[in-house]
Amino acid sequence: MKKILKFLSIILGFSAMISLSSCEDYLDKVQDSAGISEADILEDYFKFRQYEDGMFRDLQNYLSAGDYSYIAALSDEGYVNSINWETMPIAQSGDWLRAYDTGQALQFYGVWGSWRSIRIANRVIELLPKLENATQVEKDRLKGQAHFMRAWYYYEFLKRQGGMPYITKSFKASDEFSLPRLSFHETALKIAADCDSAAVLLPQRWDIQNLGRPEKGAAMAVKASALLFSASPSNNTTNDNAKWELAAEASWDLLSELGPYGNNRYKLLESGGTDQVTYKIPTGASERYETIQYASGFDSIFMYQPYHDEIIWENYAAVGDGGGAYRVLTTTSIQSKNVTQGFTPSANFVDRFETKNGLAITDDSSFDSQNPYIDRDPRFYHSILFNGERWTSQSGKYLELFDGGTERKSQPGDAHLGYMARKFWGKNVDQWSGTAAPQTHIIYFRLADILLQYAEAANEIGGPNYTLPGASISAVQAVNIVRSRVKMPNVKALYLSSKDAFRERIKNERAVELYLEGKRFFDLSRWGDASKLEYKQHLADDFILNPSAPTGYDINRNNVPYFTRTFNQKHYKWPIPLSDALMFEEFKQNPGW
């Protein structure tokens, strides 16, 4: 594995001969173009595109089992450790400067290394006027992708390190390199401008041979998200309402042009019926079996279908692949050993799934903490596996998530907190079946996310019933559309009494709708919640055999955290690797590092 490339070498490199390298070899569709001269690529559209496609090599796969700094385990979504490997504990301990130098910490040095892809984007834009044997449409699409990918990588930096020098040309040795960092909002506006440039050049839909390439909607989504980050409390300390307005307008632009209020290019994937889970309840001398019916279809957003119209943009590198995403979610009792394995949802996060009545479990008098699996939000069953559930291809095997059970023996690679994650893991995919994992989508943006972004920004402007001028729906209506897809009732009046009350429900809605989709860590950070103790603790549920209990076990919340991550004020902005932060006085390190 290559260590992080220094900032200076990245912005200077690749002058006459084009040399592409990668920390991962997963991008089969993008061929290595090492040794191709500029003269060659300027004479051939396909060689030029091959060079440009090097920009996709640095796309981060937030579900990759090969990323030992697994992003979900850096938030309250769940806990995982590395089996005989130092990377995950270092990242969870908050030693992020060191994380840049550890093996397979791709959230850190893998993302930071994408400066090289920014340079490819800049070089493409510079060289395009000289390209021969290409139509204007082909040139436009090449240029649109270059603007988009430049914006994308700056968006990745923005979420982590904050504002950056926004480099729009390929540097020469005689150029001035000591560039100051822009503010967070200045960088967000630069990203938005690049996205605007991309949006007018990219198609609304690629043909099947180019599935996964960024299209117009992807550019609009990145713009909306960058502006939402800029409006959020961690980056908008004066709560400037104009920033929320920009974010709401950008989300609505996408919804009104390409979404359900426009040409329907993007549509929510609706529930097609019902599914069921079966679980075993020990009753003493024998056992009984119960089933739960719930709205189906939510898992089809992420698996099974080769493409669908809820996806706005997904990882181009993983289109048609991504089948290994489930490995981190398994235990060593179910799948052969991985370095990172046994991801287990925090019990306190599991509590975020409402009852089917549309109430938080603490607000629903019908909720029984000793019978907690019944009558929950359908996304609970699509996302969480619980004690006693039938899941694997072994007909007599039911998950044993009690202490000492086969899935919870307190060894590395076990589910330590009493639950397992189902989302992104197809049923019967395990060591016994020999069944290949279904096609899995590594989605960066989908329509539900944009609806929730609009709802959040609109609520901050005027509260739950606020409708942006020119828009067709209010903040709460946008959330209700997302809930309706899984047959959940509208947001209850209990949560609509104020902007503050509804904000908490929007946060919860994002938590359950976008679980494990690489969003939660960055949401908690932009909201200023990540350093609060409740979001750093990973709590476990203990199951004590009791045949007279509703589930056959007494369920007790262990209030002593199984693990507490380190996240302090300085962690709201990731550090710049020291070799780059010390290179120029103008290129400032983030506070606290």
UniProtKB/TrEMBL annotation:
Domain of life: Bacteria
Presence of keyword Nuclease: no
Principal place of residence: membrane
Protein's UniProt keywords contain Cell division: no
Keywords: Cell outer membrane, Membrane, Signal
Residues of the SusD-like N-terminal domain: 25-223
Localization per record: Cell outer membrane
Domain RagB/SusD: 310-593
Family: Belongs to the SusD family.
Name the record gives this protein: RagB/SusD family nutrient uptake outer membrane protein
The organism of origin for this protein: Mariniflexile soesokkakense
